[in-house]
# Entry
Amino acid sequence: MNRTLAFCAAIDRFNRRVARSAAWLTVLMVLIASGNAIARYMGKATGTSLSSNAWLEAQWYLFSLVFLLGAPHALRRGGHVRVDVLLERCSERTRLWIDLIGGLVLLIPFCLFALVTSYEFVVDSVRTLEVSPDPGGLSRWPLKLIVPLAFALLLLQAVSEVLRRVAALRNTPGALPETEEDATDA
# Structure
């Protein structure tokens, strides 16, 4: 079980690094949004168009990257939507079983479904070098390449979480690290 937990810790570390890197995109997103807002008001004052669709699309591209690449780490941290009102009434063991069954029956199949169904979506976008339908918009195909990558990372994290629940149900020490630092040491 130590190898399994080491594998889980490696997945956790990798997804944490990806999420922390993606988090820096929020700084760029804020700068672009601020610059675009300033340009829009300056354009109104001068009677020129200083804003562009490319800047608006860059904002939501960056938001998409942060959301997609941060989702696996959010799963590890317990940041996804849950029914905590019901779970808080359950014993720790019951919560482990609910997480295990939810991961096996819902999350992992959903990730696999998303991977399979996104394939054609991405291939078509890349083949046609899809661009925004808006004038001055950005290419869309690079962003769409991230969708299967993000679901692959989420799938890996789901596997890690399921394996950790199995280990915890077997009373393996360190199966569920208390803190993020504990997870890196596992």
Residues 82 and 132 are 35 Å apart (CA to CA). Residues 3-178 form one domain. The longest helix spans residues 92-127.
